[in-house]
């Protein structure tokens, strides 16, 4: 029976976070989770039975403690025969030793249950995700796999913890009650009522805890879904100064998660009541009734001590820990298993929405999160073109940078001038510091040594909004947010004045930028500038790059740094986009990952870890064996058939 698919993991979020997380009625059953758990445990039932058998022996002290202490008191210490009393206590010590040995022998059986369980679950989750991707139009949703394998680990840890503690505690509880019944039926009668009431209240509370826990898991998943694209494009978020925009996209999910956590914590406080009702109350009643019970000959003094022992050392801790562990871990386990059960039931793909079907984890029935608010808090910080008095040449003097005070510097003593309107390519082996340099040149990381000046003004002296308006970085992973295509492309443009003529001009500028970088076909497919991007993760990495390139092309930036910003495009599309930036007014710095990018530049900067060389392609081929090696490697890679 197919359960609801992870394709639609979330209820429909509305404006109120608490309401958005309400679980739909058909989702309330945890039967799917129970079936999944049974399917996982069934092949290991022998190991489980062996672990349970050892638990019975582990419960020996709980069963015997009260009776042995009663005997020690009545027949030993109170009868003036301390030796006999000590012998009874010795019997209790022996029972505790047997318990320790049983615990030691039980553990391998427990491990035989829980360790393979994790492997089976991971296999099922990954298989279901790949099956879904193979039968649909989207690549495997790696974020979902990460999220789900985290849930698998949760399940493994919870099953282990529950089997380890609750199994023993449950046995102790039963053993303490059985021991009390054997020792003294009147005492057992006093305890029976409150314990039964406590267990009934616990059963009722469990339903609430489960609902709250499920709401929390859903809130966690919503937050992950909304936060993943932001985390992936974090550099682009920083480069665009889009912190407020990015936070606005996840804010509702963050608030909903906080509300769900608080609601669960409140429900959890009810567990304390259960211990009070089931263990503390019978103890008080027993102590109050003790004089009449002993006076009437129903109980001996030793039996009262024995009954109190059962309550204090058996029933109370077992009930407390059991309600704690089942109420917290058990509820989490039930909910997490239920989510996994939904996930690993392969389901048909959802029909594509327009030309852009939702990704496997994209909540297709879930309306987009807060539609792209025009940059709220960023309104004041909106980049405005700035006139830098002495032009736009970018000059680094004795530049140095290390990621930590004790770490080896990535950039050392670098002197570099990038002239206004120059087209520079930066090349070097992987990990040499090209991306780090791009962050320094655009002022996104302050250097640890030396300084960078723009038109003679240190970057640190230029206000951040002005800096962002002039210097634009397009990193490898582009940030595209939920909203219209226009919102995305116009993000770095100054706000047009209210008039329709301004809007018209802005649209023309955005369309021209899109055409220049080769994004026009994509934008037409998305529905034009008014088209809504519901789920940015449904776009391919190359499509997101095209949108980020068009956004920066349309911006007023005078210096653009492309840090492998075209790596997901094919060589022809890359050439198209780079040529558009080269033709655009202003300076272009390209972190090159293909020889063609280097060849297109007027000048090349080669980073080799100790020194930085600049020159044309031919200069560097003649002067630098490292550059010749890099070129050879690129040629092999780009034209393997020619053998370089
Ligand atoms: N945030 C960071 N914290 C610490 N070390 C970092 C950080 N970012 C990068 N590094 C390290 O700095 C060095 C240079 O990294 P960088 O990404 O700048 O190199 P790159 O030349 O761009 O590499 P690639 O061509 O592979 O993208 C690497 O050793 C990298 O591990």
TrEMBL record:
One of its GO terms (molecular function) is ATP binding. Residues 1-30, 346-386 are annotated as: Disordered. The chain crosses the membrane at residues 47-73, 85-102, 166-183, 189-206, 272-290, 310-335. It is found in: Cell membrane. SUPFAM superfamilies: ABC transporter transmembrane region, P-loop containing nucleoside triphosphate hydrolases. Pfam families: ABC_tran (PF00005). Gene3D superfamilies: ABC transporter type 1, transmembrane domain, P-loop containing nucleotide triphosphate hydrolases. Its main location: membrane. It comes from the Bacteria. Residues 47-317 form the ABC transmembrane type-1 domain. It is a multi-pass membrane protein. Keywords: ATP-binding, Membrane, Nucleotide-binding, Transmembrane, Transmembrane helix. Residues 394-634 form the ABC transporter domain. InterPro entries: AAA+_ATPase, ABC1_TM_dom, ABC1_TM_sf, ABC_transporter-like_ATP-bd, P-loop_NTPase, Type_1_exporter. This is ABC transporter ATP-binding protein.
